[in-house]
Every structure is written in C-alpha cells, then in structure tokens.
C-alpha cells in the first residue's frame, strides 16, 4: 500500500494520494487550496494514474482544487449529497465574514462528473475497497473513508475534519452541530480497532487507540454510543 500526503495551501489541509503500490492507479483525497503543483509532483514521483477524487466534506479548504484536478485528469469527484452544493457555492459553508475575506472575484463550479456517496457504501477504486461512513456534525455531508488492513499496514481511516490528534472538527459553521458530531464519533470511530491509523484533514496522524485513551472529546462522545450490552 502506498499513501502519500502533504499539507496544501494556507489552511494546511492534508491531501492524500492512495494506491496499492507505485506505478498503479490511485485515488486522491481532499485536494485543497493550491494542491495541484504538489499533487502533480507526487503522481509523477510514484508513477500513479488517478481514477477518482474523494471529498470528505464540502468546506473550501478541502475541495478548492477538486474541479481543476478532475478536469485535468478526466476523473469523477465523489461527495456526499448533503455537501454537493458546496462544490459550486462553498460560501454556504462559511460565516459571512469569512466569505467576504476569501472569495472576492473567485468562482467555483462542479466537475463534469460528480458522484454521490452513501453511508456504508464500498467503493471499488484503483484495486482497493474503501468503505464510506456518513459522519455528520462538522458539516451535514461529512464522511470518512476506511481501508482494511494489509500485511504492511493496519486499518486506515481518512477522518477528514471529524477527528484530529487530540481534538475534533469545529461545529460553529453552517451545517455544524455538536451533539451530532459526538454521535458520529461514538458510532463510527469508537468501535474501530485500537491500531487503526487515523489520517486527519489537518495535523499529524494518530491512532484510534491513542485518541480513545487521551482525546477528551472521545470520552465525551462515549455515552452517545448507547448501551453496549443487552438487558
């Protein structure tokens, strides 16, 4: 398994490239602001051919370069339907002050080929199986992507802005909701194996076991998992 990542743009949003091995097809996760140059370098270095762009949610720092990347490579973009409108109107997911500061004369459009994600769906792309989990709370259409373990690596979770090392995604922007993100954490993160590698939308990687032991938000989320034993 080959996973290459880099922080893109002023938001330092992690963009990931995932492939079974060098020289094969790959998927791109969250190409953010000014991601194209670094992304091209990664693809060239590892001789990779993209077949899809996966978007964990519609915030601009995660989808800024989706349309140009899809257009240049003639590949589809996958996003949850609750966040699809943010591809062409990312201002809907931001505060008024942030919209005024960021956009000016910028215009965004959907890629030519947009496909919608569903909770529990398994995407068979580039010779890999990625499981989609709908994890609202940061946005209404937030999702995570899971890869099963291989001989080389444990399970992998691309967590977007659901879970970070020591923290979780903010819920004060349009579409955010704190009790909802706690439920997503409880039902989609807490049940995962301890050694699951978490590759978040910002900051360093971590593991589910480390976050379960140290992240105060996961402790707060635990009651939202409901009863774990019958009565």
UniProtKB/TrEMBL annotation:
This protein's name: Glyoxylase, beta-lactamase superfamily II
Keyword terms: Hydrolase, Metal-binding, Zinc
Molecular functions (GO terms): hydrolase activity; metal ion binding
Cofactor needs: Zn(2+)
Domain Metallo-beta-lactamase residue range list: 12-202
InterPro entries: MBL_Glyoxalase_II, Metallo-B-lactamas, RibonucZ/Hydroxyglut_hydro
Transmembrane segments: none
Top-rank taxon, per record: Bacteria
Family annotation (SMART domains): Lactamase_B (SM00849)
Pfam families named in the record: Lactamase_B
